[in-house]
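Reply to dn_fold:

You asked what the input looked like. This is it:
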Amino acid sequence: MESSNQFFISAKPTRLFFKVAIPGLVSMLAMSLYLAFEGIFVGHFLGEAAFAAINIGMPVIMINNALADLIGVGSSVPISVSLGRKDNNKANNVFTCSIILIISVAALSGIVIFFCAPLFANLMGAEGELAELAVRYVRVYACLGPVTTIVFAMDNFLRISGFVKGSMILNIFMSLLTVLLLALFLGVFDMNVEGAALASALSLFTCAVIATVPFILKKSILRFVKPKFSFSMIREIVSCGAPVFLNNIAGRVASILMNSALLRMGGQTAVATYSVMMYAAGVIEPMLYGMSDSIQPAIGYNWGAGKLKRVASIAKVSFTVCGIVSVFCTLAMCLFPSTLAGIFVDKNETLLMEMSTHAISLFGLAFLLGWFGFAVQGFFAAIEKPLPATILSVARAMIFPVILIYALSFMGLDGLWLNYAATSLLSAILAVIMLVFTQKKMKKDIEKYVIK
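and this is what came back:
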């Protein structure tokens, strides 16, 4: 593992990025595909009602996952920085404590979500069969949360420890296993939405178990040790994880308000269309997130080692590649919306197909500038600047979308489909302001190298 750390600090920035970020991109894409496959099977086997129900329940599930991300992502930053400072004892203690915290928090939140699922569905305006299906879907995830949400943190720890390709292979396996289980539960056993949730949850659980093997066998630089909890450690984890956590929570709040607006303006079909958009975005967004997230350990390590010029150089490469990928993603969504919609929607669902095609063509504009917010937020998080990262993430995930739900209401459903494109524009402007403001606050040596 020492060779991995040496690679972080000595390899050329471009080679480092492609060596670390590309497998991370593929890994995150593979991880996200388990949800995309769920959407494909639900759309073709269960139809519009189930599609809409899953979209109603998804914000609640993501809130549960966000709690695990708070700890998983929040612990990754101090672990990377500690390794850069050669403080392996602290890194191992943070690693061990974070695992315990994730399981404990997921168990508590799972209990709350299980019993409050009907309330959540009603708050979004769901009634009758739609509400019943959403509750059944959510409760499967709530029961299995303690053994599934940990997989996202374990993926971070694998990459920090140098198992970048191993993480990628594991996530590819997870997607393939999800396909197999979805085909079994929906196609053979004829299960409903709970079958879709169970297939995804079992895949997450299986991969979480596999991911622990290198750490249990002591094949990693990170080791399980006797945990020593402290208030300062927990505060550091929460502080570093706050941007991602608040981004997730804020995004779920925006989704709840969006679903309510969709039910009011377009009914079940509009909600199902929004679900199609989210599944399509779920294939693209992880590529951007994966690149910026995968490079964070390298940036954090060099930051901890005082290699400030390398930090700026690595970030510059990351920004450039994210921008190029985003342009191609925008072109794909705007030029081939019907092809993307057809992946998730059965051809017999004519109205849903037409609405989804139109919505995707507008929604695709979001990625033209959306990458910049991801990249800047990831950079701030990696160099232990949680405040600007938090401000940017909350604004992008909730403040801008919620304001725009009402500001663009005069456009009807088109205003909702364009919500994320307008949010991306405002977020890019805010990101530039935050970069300039933060640069002025940094030391002279950092000012010399950042954003040139």
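Residues 445-452 have pLDDT under 50 and may be disordered.
Hope that clears it up.
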